[in-house]
Amino acid sequence: MSSPRFFTDAGIEVPAVTAAQMREVDRITTEETGPNLFQMMENAGRNLALLALAVLGEVWTSARIVVLAGSGGNGGGGICAARHLVNRGISVTLCIAEPGDLDEVPAFQRKIFRSTSGREITPTSLTVEPVDLVVDALIGYGLRSAPRSPVSELIRWANGSGAPILALDIPSGLDATTGGTPGDCIQPHWTMTLALPKTGLLPQRTGQLFLADIGIPEQTYRRMGLSYVNPFTKGFWVPLTCR
Prior knowledge:
Layout lengths: L5 E3 L4 E2 L4 H15 L3 H20 L7 E6 L3 H14 L4 E6 L7 H10 L5 E3 L11 E5 L13 H10 L4 E4 L21 E5 L8 H4 L1 E5 L5 H6 L13 E6 L1
Parallel strand pairs: 3-4, 3-6, 4-5, 6-7, 7-8, 8-9
Antiparallel strand pairs: 1-2, 1-10, 9-10
């Protein structure tokens, strides 16, 4: 089966990459060209917060949002987004799947979040009270097997919450390369993927798809041998269609 092709509204084709290729993009970025992980995570989280505001529409000021975060980079982007949303007066509840396992940069994002008025709860404290938006930042492109507890329970909670779901980079539980689902998988209304689309982001799995700029320079993609034309204009994210 041929790989999916992704286009912006302006007709610009954006190259799709496998998980292994995206891992190499991240390596070149952090080791050679920059930006560093702190910068990219901040850019991802701010863009995610902006898209959350956009999809909420006029009700954003009174919205109740639950952010589900994993322990890696994807989770750090979610924690960052939670902080930006709280700073705009929104009621945000942050639930970190395994807070004791947070990587260094996500842990720093959590430290900043703790200086806001946002609420952090444990996975066992999640209730069925109505929410207006669930943000999925549990697992990124590094999925290697079916999600395990407590992440799998959080995925099931999100899917059963009745709230629309906005996924960061990859719907948690989705294989970024193949589009397969080895276990529980988030069923999003929207997905905001980062830097480049992944080959597994099939339309039936992602909801409406957006691409976000996290500050990676074009030279990084050139070193990968990718044919890349900057898809961003005055904004920092664009809608993508898959053909």
